[in-house]
Amino acid sequence: MDGLIYLYGLTPTKEATNQSFPSLKGFDGEGVLYTIHIGKITAIVCDLNSENYSEESIKDRINDDMEWLQEKAFHHHETVLKLSKMFTIIPLKFCTIYKNQKSLENAVQSNESKMISAFNLISGNEEWNLKIYCNDKMLKKQVSQSNPTIEAKREEISQMPKGKQFFEKKKLDKLIESQLEEEKNKVSEQIHLHLREFALKGNVKRNWGNVVTGRKDNMAWNGVYLIPKSKIEIFLEKIQEYEKSMQKTGWQFEASGPWPAYHFSSFS
């Protein structure tokens, strides 16, 4: 077919040829997914009409049609997730589109060694995500009562004249806020470093705001880990141990996975 090619992911050709390929609907809801073998690497793709899915028309849809964007982003995510359960796959970002098969082949061939290295890294391993949430009010109370820096400042204020104490107490509130953030980062980083002992790799992502999470508690940490399948169970057990021991002090843990290895096999 003469048109655009939508790329979902890349998998080793030896895997693609050793099992039957699933019947899955394509990006436009009409065509189906199929494979293109490019030497040792196989691309999992679907065809798109070049008029309906030009770069300009997709940009317009993304900017102006939230319903379309949500539907297509969900389709991409679910499709890549299904494929990752069957193959070792380098997942591509949403709306990775090539003008034709030749341009796709050139891109794969010029990056073959990097892709094979990525396959070697992610094969036999799983990507998991851990989000840590914190009840700021509860932790703030603990920090206010037990932090030595704050205690020293509070003692210093108590020795001041009454008039000056008012302004210094305002500064104390800001100090408590800063110490709260330091405490959250310190605790979360210690947990992250401990969990990395069970992972091949562990990266820190940007925290999500409450508007995105839909939660009252603030996100204190957002980590992603590439873990050998043999260590998944102990990794999750350690998270449960943290949950049990820290829940009463306002900490909550949300582990999810396995996910396609987006963070450990990036290819643009």
Automatic annotation (TrEMBL):
<dbReference type="Pfam" id="PF06386">
    <property type="entry name" value="GvpL_GvpF"/>
</dbReference>
<dbReference type="GO" id="GO:0031412">
    <property type="term" value="P:gas vesicle organization"/>
</dbReference>
<dbReference type="GO" id="GO:0031411">
    <property type="term" value="C:gas vesicle"/>
</dbReference>
<keyword id="KW-0304">Gas vesicle</keyword>
<dbReference type="InterPro" id="IPR009430">
    <property type="entry name" value="GvpL/GvpF"/>
</dbReference>
<protein>
    <submittedName>
        <fullName>Gas vesicle protein GvpL/GvpF</fullName>
    </submittedName>
</protein>
<comment type="similarity">
    <text>Belongs to the gas vesicle GvpF/GvpL family.</text>
</comment>
